[in-house]
Amino acid sequence: MNKYLSIIIGIFNCIVLSNFSVKAQNPNVVLIFMDDLGYGDLSCTGALDYQTPNLDKMAREGMLFTNFLATQAVCSASRAAILTGCYPNRIGISGALMPTSEKGLHPDEITIAEMLKQKGYATGIFGKWHLGHHKEFLPRQHGFDEFVGLPYSNDMWPVGYDGSSASQAQRKNQYPFLPLIENDAKIGEVKTLEDQANLITLYTERAVGFIKKNKKKSFFLYLPHSMPHVPIAVSEKFKGKSKVGLFGDLMMEIDWSIGQIIQALKDAGVEKNTLVIFTSDNGPWLNFGNHAGSSGGFREGKGTTYEGGHRVPTIMSWKGTTKPGLVCNQLVTTLDILPTIAKVCGAQLPKNKIDGLDFTSILKGNVNIPVRDTFYYYYRRNSLEAVRLGNWKLVYPHEGRTYENQLPGADGFPGPAPENTPVPLGLYNLSRDPAERYNVYDQHPDIVAAINKAAEVARLNLGDDLTKTIGQNIRQCGIKK
Questions:
Q1: Can you name the CATH fold of 376-479?
Q2: Of 106, 130, 291, 398, which is the active-site residue?
Q3: Is 328 noted as a catalytic residue in this protein?
């Protein structure tokens, strides 16, 4: 009798210990970062003539953010922000790093991957890096165990808009073919649009393999897709599937990729222990017409500090934690991803100053309590072009890009997007005028004064080229040795 009792107790202990180990495992994090995806590019945010059912389902079962901002409306700067929780100008990153650049993310900056490595996480990135293409700046030197992807944007190659070799008159003629990198070594080159058509499948398959391999331990998966940044291309399985041509086909393939990731989490038995974040680095590159997306009615797009450049589609899902179907209208930004992940995963924040704020309370359902009321819209090298305070936004006079009153291009060829257009001083109430069409500057001197006060804090802290202010708390990016 004692023998059988011992066996029963042993089995019971195994079950209890097994369940305890699953519950004690730190949450996994999947961060999906699109490139040039506009606010209106999902069917749950208004897209027409194609569907994104996997993302729509993710929104229904998770949380849709309607007031979520990318930190800067351009590639490298935006990526530096989401991975470090810092305004990119604080850490010396601006614009989009080119294949000729000698700069990159400084080794002293702590990324989400490095932060989670200290907690024993497996870390992988499959997609576009764009924070320095020299070996000392690549993902393996910033906390990632694995990397497969491109070191910079998919249009930085010696190929013209029609897919043929770039002419001698084009700067792109001097670029190398896109290097496909695994860990620290080049394993191939992307030379044609047909090669680019395989990128979504490649990234997705590698990401699914990473989930399968690490399902018994905590992991951080970063999936920064290279598209819908132009040039766009789709695999044979999605070509011609939508009603709106290549861009619609591409969005269907992107949605397929998200579905594959969610299914892999389910198959691995870790869906309820995984926070999935889907967002974009900036708004759409509108002058590419039918090869670009939609800003969803917000003004302008990529490369501008109007809302169309910064307001991006964002969905987060964490089964059992996020309440299904919630909509968050609070101001949240890509700066806030790192500190929130730190809180969720019990990780220590970087010792260097960061700018992000923890919004775990929002994830847990407190969508009516704001965690952030101020945001600084920087662009160019270090120009403070606008400031957000609550629902008010003050735009400072500057020269910038515009897509307005310009005929967009088509089929991969861009239309004009003048870069030095004067942008006037303006105050906008985003709660009533999210498209920033009604300048109420003269009606609210008290609001203007409050925002100007906040702007001075930013200028002293981070600097401002427009007012020739040098920031007191900025750090440098890395320079190739």
A1: Arylsulfatase, C-terminal domain (3.30.1120)
A2: 130
A3: no
